[in-house]
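User: Please predict the structure of the protein below. I'd like the answer in structure-token form so I can feed it into my own downstream comparison script.

Assistant: Understood. Taking the following sequence of 346 residues as input:
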Amino acid sequence: MNMKNPLLEFTDKGIYCSVAKVYLDPWRAVDKAIISHGHADHSRWGHKQYITHHRNVPIISHRLGEINVTGKEWGETFSINNVKFSLHPAGHIIGSSQVRVEHKGEVWVFTGDYKTENDGISTPYEPIKCHTFITECTFGLPAFKWTPQQEVFENINQWWEENKSEGKTSILFGYSLGKAQRLLKYLDTDIGKIYTHGAIENMTQVLRPLVDFPETTLITKETKKEELLGNIVLAPPSAHGSTWIRKMVPYVTASASGWMTFRGARRRRAIDKGFVLSDHCDWQGLLSSIEATGAEKIICTHGYTEIFSRFLREQGYDARTEETQYGDEEDNTVPDETATLEKQTS
């Protein structure tokens, strides 16, 4: 590979394929953008043309409004200026894709965000052979090791049942796109009713044609707190501490996030209970995914990039880091504990 003219390059607008004149998940307005998934840091407003998986079309149309968008199938090859592109399941959220780029026998794969555990609602992650692999490493520390989701959901439903027995409302925080629907899918409606914050209800309604979700009830001004007692409320993290939530006393709160691995994350956010559940890869998931690609060159983007790329180099990979403007939609980091874990990995 000629590093002076790489197939994909990192620019101030985003990841750019100069041969095709197309960007992948650009963070500034461009003419043509291939979008990996619907989270706001990867699908931004203002591009003249959007290309994405067809399951992501209703998501970004809901979030961005009137846009010029084309939907593609998994594995469907489309050429732009003789560069071949195709989308492959990333397993992160519904409609999330990896982007495969091929030109003159050279293959790159951009993961966007991804996870290897099959959550039952997203199309499961599919390893793609390539020469260069652009990977996130949001949870790129050995301390992150996920418990199988079935066990996590059993714990969540048990928590809800215990709260009900004490006459309290259960409030469960999760990001409005992806995490909230994953939680919703596995809540046990034999325990009680599922109430939703407006942001979660609106997105869930967009996704209902794609997934069989349990029934939900939107909380409105007319909803009385007596109706909520013993039931569960799904809300975005931003609702915590708001006047909206203070009307629900007595309640118990919980958050579902990979960051709940940190004991201090729950304490600092004044959350009663933390469930470790992430829509990203854990440490082992990242390593196994990279190995499965057969790639020799690894580019680490958002997350623990320096630590993770250094570890990969020690394993014999040609690994480096690149700056992007992607974040973590479930970011609940606790600085002092993060620093401690980084020292342990060094």
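That's the full token string. The first strand starts at residue 9 and ends at 10.
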